[in-house]
UniProtKB/TrEMBL annotation, chain A:
Name of the featured protein: CoA-substrate-specific enzyme activase, putative
Source lineage: Bacteria, Pseudomonadati, Thermodesulfobacteriota, Desulfobacteria, Desulfobacterales
Keyword Nucleotide-binding tagged: no
Domain ATPase BadF/BadG/BcrA/BcrD type: 18-236
Source organism of this protein record: Desulfatibacillum alkenivorans DSM 16219
Cofactor: [4Fe-4S] cluster
GO molecular function ontology, one term from the record: metal ion binding
UniProtKB/TrEMBL annotation, chain B:
Cleavable signal peptide: none
Pfam families assigned to the protein according to its UniProt record, in alphabetical order: HGD-D
Domain of life per record: Bacteria
Protein name per Swiss-Prot or TrEMBL: Benzoyl-CoA reductase/2-hydroxyglutaryl-CoA dehydratase subunit, BcrC/BadD/HgdB
Family: Belongs to the FldB/FldC dehydratase alpha/beta subunit family.
Length: 245, 384
């Protein structure tokens, strides 16, 4: 980030070694911006490997970062639902984008991107197709199991039973959305909702979640999958004393 | 060896040189399972009381043959060690109906012994009521008398009132020294971390009481002028069951906190309430063990725990509370829910963690705890 605007960004799949992944993604973002590491005033790390990033001066949890990123995009946002690959969270924000309450899944992965991936694969759909295909459905199947593995068996049963792919796809989105909504309902959230994380790119889940929670998600001006990194950049800017971070 | 290193080394092993030495000199060792089992009776019978533990566990595969995956991971790890023969150095085990999971270990261990014909042969089930009342106290006193008789008959010994009195005095001293150390955490200078206090209690419950007293005396000396609290650390109250993994506690503290008070099996629960030395020994022991700082197994004692919670938060200047429960622990599940509303009433932030014992998931715990501390910092900034 520079002068309160997003100068460049990069997203890469995480590899086996956190440090290597962090260096790779940083190199790509720097190349895009025409900068070098030495040109950075401050670096903040976030995410699961945040403690192991050698070039970061400090780290902030992804819960705070997702909140801050969403706030940077739209200061009226007061509640963030983050559905990532491995976990999902609901976060309440104050007027400055600071996390003041949160909940996070701890029982299982049924409300996460990983579970969507498994279920999409079971019906031979790419993860990116799950959303668009599901939007054509008017008769979603019901998936009642709470465990991802049993959900997969249920999905296969519908698949072999000849149900339409689009109906199964919407059923999957509904099921994952229900898990996330159940978690989020544990918080006292006020309007001004945003959906972040990789799963937010699945329009089907987003729509199902809006229905389950009875809310409308505000569109974000930056790729919602970037929200954690964006929040970390805002924190780095504050640390470096940059105005309008 | 520095006392902290000694504690670390004693706390992370199933056996230790003091036990081996005692065994070599012919002394017997009696395992037990819960902080409701009176060590005084075992000591008066000539045993070294040894609290069963899951440290050095290799997994739960063997324990799972007897238990179900819906049982708590403490009993599965602990029993796994029993199946592997890790507790074969014991002469007996006293089981306890702390909860249904741990109570079931008695049945499983009897089956195991019938199969293996190895390991501790004396297996005794001690029952304590789940309520505090005069009737419950009478019942528990009878149960303790039954334990005395079982030990006497099985090992051909006599547990006299004098022996019990001596043991009570020794264990009161041990409790009082440990209480002194834990109370040192009241001030701004905190002499030991929560992780160190877990290691300390694990060590104390695995050595002869005379050695425990000497370790505690050394520890008190080492704690003078020691401060492990870092500037800005949040002062934490930890509540939970048998948290044995010092590394897990360390992980929590590494996010920016220091444990200054607790209601843990391996913590304050070990030191609370001395035994009255001028009463007949068995009723006095029964009174102490039934009415000391309770765990949620005591269903009609939440008021006392809540009072302790409130007073401790005030006296130890606690900033935040973390409850830590094992999956499938119904007792701590209910307690965590009740403590949440107590914390709300007292206006103190609370976080509930749930985990599998030795189960990893460090990333999730780290994120949750760090975000909790960040949340508190955000709320405190607003108040300032």
């Amino acid at each position: 980030m520079e002068d309160g605007r997003l100068r460049s960004w990069a997203i890469l799949p995480v590899g086996a070694r956190t440090e290597d992944s962090a260096y790779s993604v940083m190199r790509q973002a720097l190349k895009e911006a025409g900068l070098t590491m030495e040109g950075l005033a401050s670096v903040c790390a976030t995410g699961y490997g945040r403690k192991n990033i050698p070039f970061a001066q400090f780290n902030v949890s992804e819960i705070s970062c997702h909140g801050m990123g969403a706030h940077w995009c739209d200061p009226s946002i007061r509640a963030v639902i983050d559905v990532g690959g491995q976990d999902c969270k609901a976060i309440c924000l104050d007027s400055q984008g600071r996390a003041v309450d949160f909940v996070m899944n701890d029982k299982c992965a049924a409300g996460t991107g990983r579970s969507l991936e498994i279920l999409a694969r079971a019906i031979n759909l790419g993860l990116e197709d799950l959303g668009p295909v599901s939007l054509k459905s008017r008769h979603p199947v019901r998936i009642t199991n709470r465990c991802s593995i049993f959900m997969e068996l249920e999905v296969l049963q519908h698949y072999y039973g000849g149900r339409k792919i689009r109906d199964i796809a919407l059923g999957i989105n509904h099921a994952v959305a229900k898990r996330v909504a159940f978690l989020a309902q544990g918080l006292d959230m006020t309007p001004g909702f945003a959906l972040t994380g990789g799963v937010s790119k699945n329009a089907g889940v987003a729509k199902s979640l809006e229905k389950a929670l009875g809310v409308r998600f505000r569109p974000l001006k930056v790729d919602p999958q970037l929200m954690g990194a964006l929040g970390a950049a805002v924190h780095a800017g504050v640390k470096a004393g940059v105005k309008d971070s | 060896m520095d006392i902290f290193e000694e504690i670390r080394s004693l706390g992370r092993k199933t056996q230790n040189p003091y036990l081996k030495e005692a065994r070599a000199s012919g002394q017997k060792i009696m395992g037990y399972l819960c902080s409701y089992v009176p060590e005084e009776i075992l000591h008066a019978a000539g045993f070294i009381p040894y609290r069963l533990r899951t440290v050095e566990s290799l997994g739960t595969e063997k324990g799972d043959l007897y238990y179900s995956a819906l049982n708590c991971s403490f009993v599965r790890h602990c029993f796994d060690k029993a199946v592997r023969g890790d507790f074969d150095f014991l002469d007996g085990v006293i089981f306890f109906n702390g909860c249904d999971h741990s109570r079931r270990m008695y049945d499983n261990w009897r089956d195991l012994y019938a199969e293996r014909k190895a390991g501790p042969g004396f297996l005794h089930m001690l029952i304590a009521p789940h309520k505090i009342s005069q009737t419950a106290l009478n019942r528990y006193t009878d149960e303790l008398a039954k334990l005395v008789r079982a030990l006497e008959e099985s090992f051909g010994l006599k547990i006299t009132d004098q022996k019990l009195h001596n043991s009570i005095c020794l264990y009161n001293e041990k409790r009082s020294l440990l209480a002194q150390i834990l109370a040192m955490r009241k001030g701004d200078q905190v002499p030991l971390t929560g992780a160190e206090s877990i290691r300390l209690v694990l060590a104390l419950n695995a050595v002869p009481v005379e050695k425990a007293v000497s370790l505690l005396e050394k520890m008190i000396e080492a704690c003078q002028d020691r401060n492990v609290a870092k500037p800005g650390d949040l002062r934490l109250f930890m509540a939970g069951g048998c948290m044995e993994e010092a590394d897990h506690m360390q992980l929590i503290e590494d996010q920016g906190g220091i444990v200054v008070a607790d209601n843990l099996c391996l913590g304050a629960r070990s030191v609370h309430t001395p035994i009255e030395e001028d009463l007949p020994p068995i009723p006095a022991i029964a009174r102490r063990y039934l009415t000391h700082l309770s765990c949620p197994r005591m269903v009609n004692d939440f008021y006392s725990r809540s009072q302790y919670f409130e007073e401790t938060i005030r006296d130890f200047s606690v900033d935040a509370v973390i409850t830590d429960k094992l999956m499938f622990c119904d007792l701590w599940g209910g307690e965590a829910f009740l403590l949440k509303s107590e914390a709300k009433r007292l206006g103190i932030p609370i976080l509930t963690l749930e985990r599998e014992m030795h189960g990893g998931a460090a990333g999730q715990v780290q994120t949750r705890v760090q975000a909790f501390f960040e949340k508190i910092a955000n709320l405190t900034q607003d108040d300032a």
